[in-house]
Amino acid sequence: MSKWIEKRSRPVLPLYLAALVWPVGALILPPYRLVNLVILAVLSVAVYFIAAHFCPTRVQRVAMPYATGSEDTDAMLAGISANLDALHKLNDNIPDAELSRQLDRMEKAGRGIVQAVEQKPDKARSVDRFARYYLPEVVKIMSSYVQMEQGGIQGDNAAQILGEVRRNAATMATAFENQLDALYSAEAMDISTDIEVLENIMKGQNLTK
């Protein structure tokens, strides 16, 4: 769930005007006299506050994509989403239907991971390696694939690399799905236990046949 934060930016014009008092004032009041220095200082402060009154601090409301209560987790989720967006964009440039389908699987599982961590931020540690290594590496590999495809690069080496990407895409997609499944392993166990308890209660009250 996104949240709004306020960013305040102080105007720099009052500082510039206050600083300008010194060289301009020095033309009228020689600064080598102490009394003149005091007068210039007072004038500089007065100009600053007057200018600040007419140039109030600007407040901007900025939407934060995630609000889990942890800045590190929010940054992780934002990074995962950015990489998934990049993967989606790369997929748009892949004509191979089967490879495109595998990228769809990866993106779907990745979005599920984001949703799971957003709902329960304590799961963030479980997807740290996925966020920092696996997903960025897949984006890097697919980016190279698209560049080679669009660049019309030919030769045995290029054909071997492109073939390896196609052959291993399903394995990558399965790894993404396994990562998502692992996030729900504890919940699945709890639900299984709850069902078992409920069945025993119903049997004890002769509610089942």
Give an overview of the whole structure.
- The protein is mostly helical.
- It folds into 2 domains: 60 residues, no CATH class; 128 residues.
- Helices cover 73% and strands 7% of the residues.
- It has a two-stranded antiparallel sheet.
- The longest helix has 28 residues.
- The protein is elongated, with a radius of gyration of 31 Å.
- The model has no long low-confidence stretch (mean pLDDT 84).
Fraction of residues in helices? over 70%
Kindly report the average pLDDT value: 84
Tell me the β content. Answer: 5-15%
Distance between the termini: 45 Å
- Quaternary status: single chain
Task: Please tally the β strands and state the result.
Answer: 2
Strand order across the largest sheet: 1-2
Q: What's the Cα radius of gyration? A: 31 Å
The low-pLDDT segments are none
Q: Give the biggest sheet.
A: 2 strands, antiparallel
Q: Compute the number of structural domains.
A: 2
Shape annotation: elongated
Q: Assign the structural class, choosing from mainly alpha, mainly beta, alpha/beta, alpha+beta, or little secondary structure.
A: mainly alpha
Number of helices: 7
Question: SSE order in H/E notation?
Answer: EHHEHHHHH
In short:
The chain is mostly helical and 209 residues long.
Task: Provide the fold topology.
Layout: E1 3-9, H1 13-28, H2 34-54, E2 58-64, H3 71-91, H4 97-119, H5 128-151, H6 156-183, H7 185-204
Antiparallel strand pairs: 1-2
